């Protein structure tokens, strides 16, 4: 039995939902998100929210049970509060600045890197060494953060690069004489 899958997903006030046999659409103050269910799982709407149950007890149905419940909960949280990731730039001369909607990164390369975010994701940079990524879709926010981090991942000797806020970089000892 899935511990996560058994929990109902509560629907807060101000959120409208449209449930069909194969999918779900959720609208809220932060936007509109939708998903398609796998055929091994059924979703029903009850008084306390959405209830996810497997159609049969096969291994795949039990595997998808908790996953589909978590994805439904992510949709509801995304349209109500949204998601955010914070990145830090560590290194001499590493800085970020905004150019309209896109972010311009000076990362010690021969050229500045300009990154345009996809639709539904906003990027802001209040300090030159911090980047804040916000959006309603958890997967998109994480993907944008990973793409920006990929331009200059943190290196283990000096810790220079783009890292997630609060991320621990394991350091290595340098050369010895």
TrEMBL record:
The chain positions of domain Large ribosomal subunit protein uL6 alpha-beta read: 11-82, 90-164
UniProt-listed PROSITE patterns: RIBOSOMAL_L6_1 (PS00525)
InterPro entries tied to this protein: Ribosomal_uL6-like, Ribosomal_uL6-like_a/b-dom_sf, Ribosomal_uL6_a/b-dom, Ribosomal_uL6_bac-type, Ribosomal_uL6_CS
UniProt keywords (A-Z) are:
Ribonucleoprotein, Ribosomal protein, RNA-binding, rRNA-binding
Cellular component annotations (GO), alphabetically ordered:
cytosolic large ribosomal subunit
> What domain of life does the native source organism fall in?
Bacteria
Tell me the Pfam families matching this sequence: Ribosomal_L6
Asked if the record carries the keyword Ribonucleoprotein, the reply is: yes
* Gene Ontology MF terms in the entry: rRNA binding; structural constituent of ribosome
What biological-process GO terms show up in the record?
cytoplasmic translation
On subunit structure and binding partners, the annotation says:
Part of the 50S ribosomal subunit.
The record describes the protein's role as:
This protein binds to the 23S rRNA, and is important in its secondary structure. It is located near the subunit interface in the base of the L7/L12 stalk, and near the tRNA binding site of the peptidyltransferase center.
Q: Family per UniProt?
A: Belongs to the universal ribosomal protein uL6 family.
The name on file for this protein is Large ribosomal subunit protein uL6
Q: Where does this protein come from, organism-wise?
A: Maricaulis salignorans
């Amino acid at each position: 039995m899935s511990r996560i899958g058994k929990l109902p997903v509560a629907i807060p006030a101000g959120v409208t939902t449209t449930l069909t046999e194969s999918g779900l659409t959720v609208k809220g103050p932060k936007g509109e998100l939708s998903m398609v269910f796998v055929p091994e799982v059924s979703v029903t709407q009850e008084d306390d929210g959405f209830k996810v149950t497997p159609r049969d007890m096969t291994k795949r149905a039990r595997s998808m049970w908790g996953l589909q419940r978590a994805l439904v909960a992510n949709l509801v949280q995304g349209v109500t509060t949204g998601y955010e990731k914070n990145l830090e730039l560590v290194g001499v001369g590493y800085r970020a600045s905004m150019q309209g909607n896109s972010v311009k990164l000076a990362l010690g390369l021969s050229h500045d890197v300009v990154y345009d975010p996809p639709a539904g994701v906003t990027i802001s940079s209040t300090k030159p060494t911090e980047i804040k990524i916000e959006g309603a879709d958890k997967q998109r926010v994480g993907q944008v953060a990973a793409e920006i981090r990929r331009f200059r991942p943190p290196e283990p000797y000096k810790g220079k690069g783009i890292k997630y806020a609060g991320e621990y970089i394991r350091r290595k000892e340098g050369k010895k004489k």
